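Many groups now describe folds with learned vocabularies. In that spirit, our science desk offers one protein's residues alongside their backbone shape tokens.
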Amino acid sequence: MTTHATERGPAGPVTGDPAGDPATWDADAAVDALYAAHWRRLVRLSVLLVGDVGTAEEVVQDAFVALHGRWGRLRDPDRAAAYLRQSVVNRSRSVLRHRGVVDRHAARERRPDDASPADAPLLDDERRARVLAALRALPRRQREVLALRYYLDLSEADIADTLRISRGAVKSHASRGSAALRTLLEGHDL
């Protein structure tokens, strides 16, 4: 298991690996090492963004498949972990956009007497479900910044790099998102 410091390091999971220079690894060896080091945390990140474990696992799997296919074209193999994080965030966004289209279409097609009951919370823990629901209620950027900051414990620079926004924007989204979460969760015993 990879330590927390390795996952946060600038070079990702392959820095200091005695097996050799990551730039010389083939795609299979690189993806195996990255998978072992980052799979679980990337799935958790995606769950925070899409709210569904199965979908999150698919998102992360697709990110690893894409990385494998691009491995030979990566300019900096040491930044593969950052590439994976960015890929997971972007693919999670795509899932949410697709869900929105499907939901809007289903709503148009549904007759009023076909109304379905509200979905049961994904997680059994009521507290976690409230926090996740509040997180999902935030605007996309705020939700992404807070997930990257507090779940993956990324620095402002790493978050800015992952989302391709400025550090100032990261600070702004984090501040606004935290304030909105406090408001949404106000009155709940957390």
In short: The chain has eight helices and no strands. The first helix runs from residue 4 to 8.
